[in-house]
Amino acid sequence: MTTPTLSLVTICWNAATTLPQTLESVLAQTVLPIEYLFVDGGSTDGTLQILETYRPRFEQHGCAFQVIPQQRIPGQAGIPSAWNQAIPLTKGEVIALLNADDWYEPDALATVLSAFALEVDAVSSPVAMHAENSADDWLFTPQPLAKLPWKMAVPHPGTFFRKSVYDRVGLYDTHYRISADYDFVWRCQKARLHWQYLTDRPLVNMQLGGLANSSRALARRETFRIARSHCAWYDLRPLVAFLGRAITGR
Question: Measuring CA to CA, how many Å separate 155 from each of 53, 73, 97, 150, 204?
């Protein structure tokens, strides 16, 4: 079985303080993507200049480098809309989405691509979640998709999909500002994808404090709405999970 090619996508908006760490982590990979696409939401803090500084370093390794100005579409949430604008442009067989303040372990992409050589549709690895206070760091380990009525079962930054999956289940639902990834994983579960879990160690690092953490009430509402839409009408698990998160402030 052959190792597939991989396209990497990062969406960014005024990410000058964090983007260099993200870019360095990709350059440090033992296997680089065939292309790196950025969707920029109109940065004014030097993000675009940083990207142009890094362009030659990627291109000298044979990694095509493309910066796409994000098209603002009325009624569409910015993050999933940015993903949707990049994914159809990718040329790799596997797509990775990396946030502009997250970073990979050095062998992350090589490990993931080895798993895809087994003809799976999706691969999930643990993600190390980094808080401002290191004492609050935690590890998000992929769990069975049967837990979706209760919560997001797999860490989206640590989950990689074949491009063909987006042809099968569609792109991200832009009605959701925060939880479009949760809805997407639900649709993947219903499509009965062949999923591979890599659970021995984290391959991705995520910096906490983004939109989901700063808008927890909205995240709870979206998560409840999504779970209800995918569960039977009489299934009480989404409601119990919603109430539990509301009580605990999660």
Answer: 31, 27, 12, 14, 10
